[in-house]
């Protein structure tokens, strides 16, 4: 599961839908893996406005990954550079969002504490019937 996906996931429990603590899900005991991918500057510039930047910064801090700026960069910052592919920030975002994956571990809701297990890169979001 790519780290980009975590920027769009929230707890599946109905009781957590109205809680702000249900997003983002917090990684616990995760094993990360880097899966090389071709740089795609146009994808980065299109996804940037859709990202929940504070959630992404929190995720990086919890995983011990290199820090991101406190404020979301402008799209122009990602496409700046001599080759039009952006600079260090674009490379870091590409590495973080498109190449870093969660291989094993758990994603934990900050509201109810429910753990969603990740096994072989696939998160299990099926809830037992008593939690639905």
From TrEMBL:
One of its GO terms (molecular function) is protein heterodimerization activity. GO terms for biological process: rRNA (guanine-N7)-methylation; tRNA methylation. PANTHER family: MULTIFUNCTIONAL METHYLTRANSFERASE SUBUNIT TRM112-LIKE PROTEIN (PTHR12773:SF0), UPF0315 PROTEIN-RELATED (PTHR12773). Belongs to the TRM112 family. This is Trm112p-domain-containing protein. It comes from Coniosporium apollinis (strain CBS 100218).
């Amino acid at each position: 599961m790519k780290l980009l996906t975590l920027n769009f996931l929230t707890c599946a429990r109905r009781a957590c839908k109205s809680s702000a603590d249900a997003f983002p899900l917090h990684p616990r005991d995760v094993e990360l893996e880097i899966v090389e991918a071709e740089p795609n500057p146009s994808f980065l510039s299109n996804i940037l406005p859709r990202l929940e930047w504070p959630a992404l910064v929190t995720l990086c801090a919890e995983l011990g990954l290199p820090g991101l700026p406190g404020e979301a960069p402008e799209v122009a910052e990602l496409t700046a550079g001599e080759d039009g592919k952006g600079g260090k920030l674009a490379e870091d975002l590409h590495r973080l969002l498109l190449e870093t994956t969660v291989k094993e571990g758990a994603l934990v809701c900050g509201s109810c504490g429910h753990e969603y297990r990740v096994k072989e890169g696939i998160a299990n979001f099926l809830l037992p019937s008593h939690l639905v």
